[in-house]
Every structure is written in C-alpha cells, then in structure tokens.
Amino acid sequence: MKPSTPLLTLLTGSVLAAVLFTMSAQAAPPAGRPTANAGATATAPAPPGTPPGSPGSPDAPATPGTRPAAASPPASPPATPQPPDAPTGAPAPTVDGSWTGRLDSGASIALTVKDGRATAYVCDGRRLEIWLRGTVTDGKLALTGKEGARLTGTVDGGKAAGELVVGTRRWTFTATAAAGTAPVLYRATASVRDAGVDGGWIMRPDGTQIGVVTWNGTPVPAPPLDPAFRSTIVNGVTITAEPVVPAAEAGR
C-alpha cells in the first residue's frame, strides 16, 4: 500500500530541517574562540620571569614590518644665563690745566698738566728749587726729579694735593686751579758769558710771583719777570723765559 501524500511531505521537511541545522552548526565558530580583528592587535604583558630581549618582553626587538611609536621630542635645554656686561675699563678723562699752592714747609708749588703729562716746580724764592716731570693717569700724579725727588698725589678740575719726597725729607702740598688760561709757570734756560742760566717763575693768583734763578750753578732769588715780554735781567743780561708746556718740557 502506498503511503499517503501528506505523510511523505512531512518526512521530507523533517530531513531538510536536520540537514540545514547541521550545516549551520559547522559554520559557527567554537565557543570561547576570539574573533580576529584585522584593525588592531592586542599585546599581552610578558609573564613574570621572562628574560629581557626574549619574545614577549617589553625590550624585545620590533617585529619586522611594524612601525615604532613616534618618540616625543626632547625638551629644550634651559637658556644659559648671559654674564653681566664687563666693565669697559675706559680711563677717566684727562684733566688739563694749571694749579698753584704751597707746601707745608712754606715753599710754593706750581703744577701744569696737558694730555696726561705733568710738570711741577717747587721753590722758596731764595735757594730751593726742584723741577719734576711725569704723568697723570686717572687723576693720579706720578712725577720724578733730580736727586730721587718724587711727587705723588691726585688732581681734578679744582684741586691738586699730595706729597713731595726728597731723600729723607717729606712735605705735603695743596694747590688750587688757576683762573683763566694765562700761564702760571715760566722757565728760562740760556748760556751767556760762558755761564749756564736756569730760572723758574710761579705766577700767583694775587698777581705776585716767586722764583729762583741758578747762575753758573749758584741759585739766587729770581728778578721779576715781565709776562708781556717774557723777559727779565739777570746780572745785566736780558733773559727770555717761556711758558711751561709739559709736552715740550718732557725732554728736558
């Protein structure tokens, strides 16, 4: 006897459902298996005790074809502090001019300075006279003369002060700046009648003058000098004197 058509149709559907279920189960991934993600790769921490450089350790060499992470740029070094400006060391301006005054012994002194060179003359109007020459640096005097005479001190626009040393004798001096530009110091040198003449004159602020003339090695009080003609008479002979300029006097 032939089975009925409805029964045959039911059996055919059951078999088809079983086949589809089996195919679906084979295509699904096993439970617990992670699905691969082509866009990212997770790196698992190295297990404890992994030697450095071994696979899986943090310092293991990079896998070929992988790009290392970009390193952060090094921090800029701190700015080096600049040293303060060094002093220029420029010398103080040269003080040109003339000064007259006295030593504590009562003798008179005249000092004239030009372009850093200085000439000083000390006399008592009778027998003592001393010529000194030297320099002025940053307002400091340094002059020397015969027989080891030394004059040191300071000078500025209004005053000069310091010390004169000759052998074992010492004197201090002070001098004030001369008003105007008229010379305060004159000198005469000549050779007459086979005798040498060397004289000096100091023009004081009050209009008086003082000096000593050495005639053939003998000092005598200097006769008055006429500033207008720059001349005087010594032992019947006319002597001409010239204003003292340190640059010109340097060679004497």
Helical content band: 10-25%
Nearest-angstrom radius of gyration?
Answer: 56 Å
Largest sheet: 8 strands, antiparallel, barrel
Number of strands: 15
Computed structural class: mainly beta
Shape assignment:
elongated
Mean pLDDT equals 77
Helix-strand string: HEEEEEEEEEEEEEEEH
Count of helix runs: 2
Percentage beta strand: 35-45%
Give the terminus-to-terminus CA distance: 167 Å
Unreliable stretches: 34-44
Which strand order spans the largest sheet, edge to edge or round the barrel? 1-2-3-4-5-6-7-8
Walkthrough of the structure:
The chain contains two helices and 15 strands. The termini are far apart. Strand 5 and strand 6 (150-155) form a beta hairpin. It is mostly beta strands and 252 residues long. Mean pLDDT is 77; it is low at 34-44. Helix content is 11%, strand content 38%. It has a domain at 97-249. The strands form three sheets. Strands 1-2-3-4-5-6-7-8 form an eight-stranded antiparallel barrel. The longest helix is centred in the first third of the chain and has 23 residues, at 5-27.
